[in-house]
Each structure stands twice: as C-alpha cells, then as structure tokens.
Amino acid sequence: MVNYSRKRNGLKIASLNIVSLRKCKDELGIILNDNEIDVIGLNETRLNAKIDDHELMIEGYKIFGKDGNVSGGGVAIYVKDFFDVIQVERQMDSMELLSLEVKPKKAKVFFLVSWYRLP
Fold first, then answer.
1. Is the Cα torsion angle 64, 31, 72, 54 positive or negative in sign?
2. Helix (H, G, I), strand (E, B) or coil at 73
3. What are 86-119's pLDDT values in tens digits?
4. At 9, is the pLDDT very low, low, confident or very high (cuts 50, 70, 90)?
5. What share of the chain is helix, strand, coil (3-state, %, to 5)?
6. What is the spatial distance between Cα 74 and Cα 37, in angstroms, rounded to a whole number?
7. Which domain holds residue 47?
8. DSSP string of 74-109?
9. Whole-prediction pTM value?
C-alpha cells in the first residue's frame, strides 16, 4: 500500500516499504506515473553495491539511495527530475538514513529524509 500526502502547493509526496526495489521497479514506475507522485521515499530496498543505479532508473525521476546490509534494509528516494537536489551526508549508527535538500524552481528549499531501523 502506498501512503501519500494530498497535493499541496503542487507537490505530492509518498512513502512505501517496497521489500526489494529491484524486483518491484516496473510496478513502482506505474504507481509513480499513474498517481502523479513527485517524490517517494522507499524502505527495505535491499540494494547493495553490486546493483548498478542504471538498473533502477525510472523515466522522469532521479534516484538517490543508501545500500542496506547483508540481511536487507536499504533506503531510496525518487524525485522528479525537474527538481534540483543535493544529497546531504548524515550518519546515525542506529539506522540507515538518506537525507536530501530539494530546491524547487518557485518555492522554498525543503529537506526529505528516508530512514530504516533494522529490527
């Protein structure tokens, strides 16, 4: 089930526990386009260094990710490609954390965070 906020000021944000982004990428692309989602944060992506970012590309979106560990985990954020985005390095020992600074063309800068705490 995709959880998303109503579009306010022209921005629609969603979150999803995807349980393997690689296996669900095509379905995710359909969800993003059919629901006109601007940003989606994903947990349990199960990404690792062996998976090339090119395999995860969805037309019209930029992807930012943080690999999980051997038992799973991992986080990612897809952002529509017309936003200027900078990945902000933040560390927390107790969780996997991905933080982005987003600069819309006609709005204030805002931050997005996707995180996952291993059980």
1. negative
2. coil
3. 999 777 777 888 999 998 887 889 999 988 887 7
4. low
5. 15, 40, 45
6. 21
7. 3-116
8. -EEEEEETTSEEEEEP---TTSEEEEEEEE-TTS--
9. 0.86
Tally of domains in the chain = 1
Phi, psi (degrees; rounded to nearest 5) at 67: -65, 150
Distances from the Cα of 47 to the Cα of 5, 34, 74, angstroms: 26, 25, 6
Residues sharing a CB contact under 8 Å with residue 12, sequence separation 6 or more, in sequence order: 4, 5, 6, 35, 36, 37, 38, 39
List the CATH number of the domain containing 58. 3.60.10.10
Identify the sign of the CA torsion 95, 15, 38, 71.
positive
38: DSSP letter: S
